[in-house]
Amino acid sequence: MSKIHAKTFYFASRFLPPEKKNACYAIYAFCRYIDDLVDKNLMRSLSSEESFEKISEAVNEWRQHLQALYNGEIIDHPIMIALKDTISRFDIPENLPNELIDGVNMDMSKTRYENFEDLKVYCYKVASVVGLMTTYVFGFKDDRTFNYAVDLGIAMQMTNILRDVKEDAMGGRIYIPNEDMKLFDYSEEDLMKNTMNKNLRELMEYQISRAVNYYDTAEEGIRMLDRDSRITVGLMSRNYRKILHIIRENDFNVFGKRTYVPVHRKLADVPKVMLEFGRA
Fold first, then answer.
1. Short-list 134, 147, 120, CA closest to 233
2. CATH number, residue 180
3. Which candidate, 276, 270, 210, places its Cα nearest to that of 236?
4. Of 231, 230, 238, 175, whose CA–CA distance to 207 is shortest?
5. Of 167, 129, 134, 177, whose CA–CA distance to 150 is shortest?
6. Out of 72, 76, 81, 261, which residue is the most buried by the measure of CB atoms under 10 Å away?
7. Chain-centroid distance, C-alpha 232
8. Structure confidence by residue, pLDDT tens digits, 65-112
9. pLDDT digits (tens, 9 = 90+) for 202-257
10. How many domains does the chain have?
């Protein structure tokens, strides 16, 4: 999920009140730091047991920092100082950032997923959990909002997975469920060779349709947020969904340049989203 924050959130965050914007920045900074702790170190490591142990120790140290933070202690690190203010002000439950750490740890122990139910657990921990934390910041009028936040997190993480298929495979990780790859007769060997064929196109369309269903379901939850937060979340959802549209436009070729949404296409939806989600 931390990959989501870079451009999509910063573009949409201009519509948030300053205190909510700063709180979200604190959450995303924490998520990004934890994610990089594992991701970048895994890329550098030789996948040795010693390397994994060092990464695990670093992640566990941050889990201890988190525990100390919730116990009222002050951790002398800019990210933790900002996070302490955020969790206190918006009453964010302790289990959520801990579940994020659990999810990030999965990348050290799990490189394949047998079916979508398995993958959903990963998507929940690394993406939906971030949506749940930010829901406390955005404000909500109905507890059902949390269910929709989970759906939006799954949709956005699925989008990451489909966009980054090549990059992840080069790093030794394949997130597309093995069950689905078998269904469309597309093998790991095909993926490693960047094979473009009918099977890949059908496999990608199947995954995209699944993600779009989650985006569609999550829309109702955006309307349950505080009015001053809806436009930001609406833009994040619509603009991240556009990555899937562009993958389709590119004939499902995920082996070339990294798919991104140009600024003019992000701007195109602003009036519509403001009209749709900005009303009382």
1. 134
2. 1.10.600.10
3. 270
4. 175
5. 129
6. 261
7. 16
8. 999 999 999 999 999 999 999 999 999 999 999 999 999 999 888 999
9. 999 999 999 999 999 999 999 999 999 999 999 999 999 999 999 999 999 999 98
10. 1
CA distance 63 to 86: 17
Give the whole-angstrom CA distance, residue 151 versus residue 188.
Answer: 28
Q: Which domain, by its residues, includes 228? A: 2-277
Report which of 270, 9, 34, 259 is spatially closest to residue 131, judged by C-alpha positions: 9
Asked if residue 100 lies in contact with residue 130, where contact means CB atoms within 8 angstroms, the answer is yes
Structure tokens at 140: 């909500």
Please answer whether residues 263 and 251 qualify as being in contact, where contact means their C-beta atoms are separated by less than 8 angstroms: no
Compute φ and ψ for 140, nearest 5 degrees.
-150, 160
For residue 225, what are the β-bridge partners?
A: 140
